[in-house]
Structures are given as C-alpha cells and as structure tokens.
Amino acid sequence: MAELIAKTPCDGLLPITSETVSLTELTPSAITSFMPYKGREKAASTALKKACGMALPGPNEASGTEGARAIWSGRGQCFILDTGVPADLATEGAITDQSDAWAVMQLAGAGAQDVLARLVPVDLRLAAFKPGQTVRTEMQHMMASITRSGDTSFDIMVMRSFAKTAVHDLHEAMKSVAARG
Amino acid sequence: MRIKCPLCGERDRREFYYKGAAIDLARPAPDAGDVAWDDYIHNRENPAGRTKDLWQHEMGCSAWLVVERNTVTHEIYGVELAENVKRGMK
Ligand SMILES: [Zn+2]
User: Fold this and answer.
1) Do B59 and A74 touch (CB under 8 A)?
2) Is the pLDDT of residue A181 over 90?
3) Which among B37, B59, B53, B74 is positioned nearest to A135, based on CA atoms?
C-alpha cells in the first residue's frame, strides 16, 4: 500500500516575516464544530464545560487557553480546538470533525492590526478588539474566523482550500505596512 | 451602508447577501390556491419607502435576517433574526 504523507494546509507557505510582523501556521490537534440542538443550549454548555473545561462561547467570544479552546464560529455554532470532543456530547448537539478543513494561522507582532486593517472590514485595532474576542468576517473575499489570541497576536482561520490565497494576501499587506514604516 | 447583525454587531454591507422581499417567510399552505401562490412567487410591492427584506450575514455568522429599511432615504429601522420573525408569525 502507498505510504501517504500528511501535509498541513500551509505546508511550504509559512512561516514568513516582514519587519515586526510574522505569520506562522498553527496546527491544532483537532478542530470540531459543536452545534447545540434547539433548546439545549444551556445543557450543552454545561456538558461542554464538564468534558472540555470551557463553557459554550457567546457571539464574538472565545474561551479556553492553548490546549483546549472554544471559538464562537457563527449562529448556534462553535469550534473546539486542540482537544477531542467526547462522543456523548452528541446528545446535546451536533458534532462534526473539521480537523482537515481549515488553515489556521497566527499573525503576530507590532503592527499586526495594521495588516488586518487592510484586509478586513471590522475594527480590529488592539483598543477595540480585546483578547478573548473573535469575529466571523471576511478577509479580502474569503470567509474567515479571526480571534485576538494575545497582546499583539491574532489567530486566523480560513477554509483549507484558501490557504495559499490567504497567505498571499496577508503577505502583500505585511509588506505594504512594512514599506510605510 | 452598515447593517447591525443581532449576533455580530454592526458590519459592513459587503459581508451580507441580499435575497429580496421578506414575503419569502410567509409561504402559503400547499392548498392555498393559485392566487395565493401566484402572489407569493411572482408579485412584489417594490415600495418607494419602508420595506422589509431578507439578508443573509453570509461572511459573518450565517444568520438570515429581516432588515426593515427605507428605499428612498436608506434609513435602516431595525434588524431581526429571520428565525424569530418566522416564529412570531405562527
Ligand atoms: Zn452576524
């Protein structure tokens, strides 16, 4: 049988750096979407907290730390990153394995928010977009999930098939910001 | 133009997909008759003034929204989740 080699979505594309801003790939061990069934939101949140250590995040919220994170990802949905979701949570909501479906990147460093300002129609300045906040929005023409993950770092998710385009667009914006000092 | 999504907050127009008159939510019963179905499928008011439209926050939370706005002044009066509007119609 052929030996298959697993490649990450940004294999051969990252990391890149431009002056103070760097773009690196994150490779969460798992990405699972969790969608509580109608009327089960509270029970689902309790069950998730028991199983993975964090409650269901509300709109525009992310919770948890490296090792297990929950990121709100749309109406009635969140993504659980880095930790598996026990199958018995399926009594409270729909669970879908999305581990290979997303390219996950971290844009970090002084000026990261200026890079995003060129690509995203939401105010992501450090003063307006705090750690623990997340948005579903567009980055150029791509659907994206962007989460403020640290002092000057943003975690960006796009569908895996957009990995190369996303890296290209981010790189162009990084160079453009760097050129202006 | 900016639309205030009930879930995401105020967002740029480019994040939204426009569908058309919110009459789509008032689907007639299967046996409602030809006139009701003809109205539902083909006839629209196209008002100069207040109108209720369906929009989807396509690039955001994916929710369908009912946006009440003025086609003359572009004022937006309110935005509701289509889910809640539909529930209120029953
Ligand atoms: Zn929204």
Assistant:
1) no
2) no
3) B59
Total domains, chain B: 1
Q: Are residues A105 and A171 in the same domain?
A: yes
**Taking CB atoms and an 8 Å cutoff, what residues of chain A touch B59?**
136-138, 143
Q: Among B61, B5, B9, B87, which Cα is nearest to A76's? A: B61
pLDDT for the residue numbered B1: 87
Region class of B37: left (phi > 0), else alpha (psi between -120 and 50), else beta: alpha
Taking CA–CA distances from A78, the nearest residue in chain B reads: B61
What CATH code is carried by the domain that includes residue A56? 3.30.70
Both A67 and A129 in a single domain? no
Tell me, yes or no, if B21 comes closer than 8 A to chain A by beta carbon. Answer: no
Residues A37 and A87 both lie in one domain: yes
B79 interface with A at CB cutoff 8 Å: no
Q: Tell me the chain A residues in contact with residue B7 when contact means C-beta distances shorter than 8 Å.
A: 59-60, 75
Domain extent at residue B7: 2-27+48-84
pTM of the model: 0.94
Question: Taking chain B (90 residues) in consecutive chunks of 10 residues, what is each chunk's mean pLDDT?
Answer: 96 96 94 96 94 97 97 96 90
